Amino acid sequence: MISIKGTERVLICPLGWGLGHATRVIPIISFLLKKGCTVIFAGDESSLTLLNVIFPQNQSIYFPSISVRLSKKSSSFLLFLIALKVINRSIQENRELKKIISQQRIDLVISDNRYGFYSQEIPSVLITHQLRIKFPRPFGWLELIGEWYVRRYANRFAECWIPDNSEGFRLSGELSQTKHPPTNVQFIGLLSRFSEFEKVKKVKPKWDLVAIVSGPPPHRDIFERELVDLANRLNLKTLVIQGLPQNSSKVVRGMATLIPHLPDDEMAEAILSTKYIICRSGYSTIMDLMALGRRALLVPTPGQTEQEYLAIYLSQQKILDFSSQKDLKNLTVERLKDSQSDHWVSVNVSFFPVA
C-alpha cells in the first residue's frame, strides 16, 4: 500500500452518482488528515456540500460527473449510452486533472470510481468494488468486455483499492472477483463513515420506520413517493432521509416526515433507534448497515444491475432481506418485522483503519 508520510497534498474525487461514493471516502479523509496531509476535494455539488460540512477547513473544487437519468423501465440501450458517456468523460477528466495537479501542487490522487482521474506523473489510487460489471440478462456475454475495460483503466493507477474483506466472506460477492484482476489490487476493508461510531444505547424508538432515499432520477422520486404511501397505508411513523444535502426544507406528509439530510451522528442515531429500515442496495449503504449492525429491507433501483445483484446475493446468503420497488405497494408490517428479525445471519467484516 502507498506509504503516507503526512506531508502530501492529496486530491480526492468521488463519483457523483448518489452520495454513497462521497460518504465512503470519509474514513480515508479522516485517516489522511490525522496523518497530517493537506486534503483537497473535487466533485459534484452534492458531494462537495456533504464533505464541506464535515471538513469545513478543506479546499474544494467543482468537478462534475456525467449526469445520469434512468428510464422508468429498464433500458439496455440506455446502459450503452451511459457507458459511452463514461468513456468520453474519463478522457476529459484526465485532461482536466493535469491542470489541477499543476495548479494545486498535488502529490497523490485518490479517485472513487472516476476512471479518468489518474496520473502518470504522481501516485494515483482507484477505489472501486466493481471489477466485474453486471449487464442485463440478454447481454451477459458483455461481462468479459466490461472486466477488460475496468482492468485496463485500473492498471493505469498505482493501486486499486477494493473496500471489502481481504480474506473470507466478501460483501461485494462476484463484483470484486474475476479470473484476471488488475495487477495492483488491494483489499483494504470496508469503508463506512460509521465505522468509528459508538453504538447508541437502547432507547424507545422515535420512529417506526427510517427510509433512506438515494440514486438518480426518476426512480429516487418514485421511491420517495412509494415510501410516503407505505407510511400512511401501514400507519407507521416514518422518517424519510432524502439524501439531498444541498436542500434544507423539512416536509410532513401524514405519517411521513421528509428531511433532506442528517449529520452523521444524527443519522446513525436514527438508524440505530428505529424499528424498521428500508433503503437502496447501494454498496456504500450496505457497508454503513454493517458498521452499525442493523438489518434492513433492501430495495434495488430498477435497472441498476449492481444493486439488483447485491440485493439478491445478500438475501441468498441470508444476511439482508430485499423487495422490488413495485412490491412496496403490497408490503406488510409482518414482512418488515421479518426483515429485521434475528434469523438473518451476521458476518465478520473488517473496516479500513483510521489512525
Explain how this protein is built.
- The protein is 33% helix and 15% strand.
- The radius of gyration is 20 Å and the shape is globular.
- The strands form 2 sheets. A 7-stranded parallel sheet has the order 3-2-1-4-5-6-7. Strands 10-11-9-8-12-13-14 form a 7-stranded mixed sheet, with helices on both faces.
- It has 355 residues and is of the alpha/beta class.
- The protein folds into 2 domains: 9-187, 3-Layer(aba) Sandwich (Rossmann fold), CATH 3.40.50; 209-339, Rossmann fold.
- The relative contact order is 0.14.
Indicate how many domains the architecture comprises: 2
Unreliable spans: none
Amount of beta strand? 15-25%
Helicity level, as a percent range?
25-40%
Residue-averaged pLDDT: 91
**For the terminal residues, how far apart are their CA atoms?**
15 Å
List keywords for this structure.
355 residues, alpha/beta, Rossmann fold, 2 domains, 7-stranded parallel β-sheet, 7-stranded mixed β-sheet, 10 helices, globular
Topology overview:
Layout (H helix, E strand, L loop, with lengths): L8 E6 L5 H4 L2 H10 L2 E6 L1 H10 L5 E3 L13 H29 L3 E5 L11 E4 L15 H12 L4 E4 L22 E3 L21 E4 L6 H15 L4 E4 L9 E3 L2 E4 L4 H9 L3 E4 L3 H10 L4 E2 L6 H12 L4 E2 L10 H7 L16
Parallel strand pairs: 1-2, 1-4, 2-3, 4-5, 5-6, 6-7, 8-9, 8-12, 9-11, 12-13, 13-14
Antiparallel strand pairs: 10-11
Question: How would you concisely characterize the structure shown here?
Answer:
With 355 residues, the protein is an alpha/beta fold. It has 10 helices and 14 strands. It has helices at 20-23, 26-35, 45-54, 76-104, 143-154, 219-233, 264-272, 283-292, 305-316, 333-339; strands spanning 9-14, 38-43, 60-62, 108-112, 124-127, 159-162, 185-187, 209-212, 238-241, 251-253, 256-259, 276-279, 297-298, 321-322.
